[in-house]
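Example 5.3 — Aminotransferase
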Amino acid sequence: MRSIIAERSREKRVEDKVFTAAKAAMDAVAEHGDRAVNATLGVLVDEEGKLVTFDEVWSTYLNLDVAKELASYSASFKGEGEYLDELQRWVFRGIDRRFQSDAVATPGGTGAVGSTFKNYLDPGEEILLPHIGWEPYWIMATENEFTVSEYKLFDGEKFNLESFKEKASKIMEKQGKVMAVINDPCHNPTGYSLTIEEWQKLAGFLNELSAKGPVILLNDIAYIDFSYKGIETRKYMELFNNNTENFLVILAFSISKTLTAYGLRTGAQVAISTSKEVVEDFVRANEFTARSMWSNVPKGGMKLLSKIFSQEEHLNKLIEERQGYVELLRERSDIFVGEAIEAGLPMYPYRDGFFVTLKTSGASEQERIYKKLKEKLIFTIKVNDGIRVAICSLSKRKIRGLAARMKEAFDE
Ligand code: PLP
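Solution (predicted structure tokens):
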């Protein structure tokens, strides 16, 4: 008997670990109050536990013209022109750029990653992912019928360039083309960011590799505006001025984090290439995907960004407001990392961003520690080879002493 659902959709099932764990954590907080720690959710909250929203963002949004800027159709599948210009000005702010670029609006960073997957590999081909990473990459690989190869993220405290090189070279030998994902800066879930030297080596290698076939690097920059380096963090993009025409970089940008406007579902793919033709192809194919999947993305999100970013005074207000929270995140991470070192809690190298990840070896150790933490009313998320702790959603008060309690779970 043929199934009603398509063969390729028979096994599809999203197991939402985060929301299931978050529900258990919220119940525990309701029952046990302050003793329970909810480190599950990847959203930024203030010291009182409230979701962070920026005044500059929502006062602008609530003043948009309902008929013209919210309710009416957007005129283009590619995205509103001003939005695409302003977001490129923003992501390339402070860098000397000589490459070609263009952008296509997408529903969130999720849409940017999904559309890129769809348009740069064919079904049956292999994609290179970090061995620890944002889970939807694997879901999208399945959706697009890719096989997955994984590079080890770390060699001790550093980015594991050797593992990346080895895996990418193997794929190039096999399929004559490589697409790899790098989530940087502020990698989810470890909070690692590559140094400029690491970027130099990575870009150098990918340029060399592109002599053998096309190379596409999907650089997921969802958390870029929470880097402790501020605008300086973009400096590595200048390396792309020297890319070969066979090496395309696509940035996945999202207003979910930049404006903490998760619900507005607005993002973009930004192509960077030294070839005009490659960029034109990028727009042509991704605009087509947009038309076939979501037509155009919510107009309000696009209008919101372009209104704020086109007026320096408003943009500065936003930057200042957000900077207060970047500092808060830094204080939280300083407390956690400092105490973790003192307690000898094993964790992956952290530089900046919303999360830290505890290091576990093997599924059974991970399960044991995860359960022990739960018994101590500490709710976290299991990731490949580790346990994610969302410091973005914990107040400094909750973080103090947490590393030592976690260490007990490792030792018991
Ligand atoms: N990339 C990473 C690593 C993320 O963690 C997220 C969201 O959590 C996204 C991309 C995309 O988010 P959104 O679709 O909300 O823009």
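Remark. The radius of gyration is 21 Å.
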